[in-house]
Amino acid sequence: MTTTMKTATTSWPVRETDPQRIAILGAADRLLAGIPSRSTGNLSTVQLAVEADVKYWVVAQKHPDLRDHFQQLVVHARRTAAAVRDNYDPHTRLQRDHDALKNHCAELEKLVRTYAQVINELALENKALREQATSPRTTITPLRRSDS
Q1: Structural domain of residue 103, as residue ranges?
Q2: What value does the CA radius of gyration of the chain take, rounded to a whole number of Å?
Q3: How many domains does the chain have?
Q4: Cα(133)–Cα(124) distance, integer angstroms
């Protein structure tokens, strides 16, 4: 026996007693679970009506609240399926990794440019200090290395 998640039924705020509405919710549950018994399994309002064994207008016009509920669940199911698919799709994973590496490289290039600028400025300051240290009117006392 296969247990199915009754997404449409459990997320519906009212316990339905009308057999037609119960059939529509049950059909929505089967479609969302991917186990249709009467329809093609396509997540559409037309197939919801086929799965519930009711006319299309019954779902579309007589019970638009259930139709809208089903359509919201379909949007969520498609987003979830796409996210899961993207997590396991090798091409998508490679693309995501590639983008992350490009961003990392761009940050490293900015860092290298900053370091180069700092090194250049320190070299100029060091040169100026060395020139001042050899000047007769120097106010700079060079530090001597002590070998301990």
Answers
A1: 90-134
A2: 35
A3: 2
A4: 14
Q: For residues 135 and 138, which has the higher predicted lDDT (pLDDT)?
A: 135
- Averaged pLDDT, 107-134: 93
Give the residue-averaged pLDDT of 104-118. Answer: 97
Could you tell me where the DSSP H helices lie in the chain? 7-11, 19-33, 45-52, 56-57, 64-88, 90-133
Q: What does the DSSP 8-state code read for residue 22?
A: H
Same-domain check for residues 41 and 114: no
What CA–CA distance (Å, rounded) separates 23 from 116? 71
How far is residue 103 from each of residues 27, 46, 83, measured CA to CA in Å?
Answer: 46, 45, 22
Q: Alpha-carbon distance 108 to 121, whole Å? A: 20
Residues 6 or more apart in contact with residue 38 via CB below 8 angstroms: 27, 50, 51, 53
Longest alpha-carbon distance in the chain? 105
Amino acid at 25: L
**What would the two tokens of residue 13 be?**
């705020």
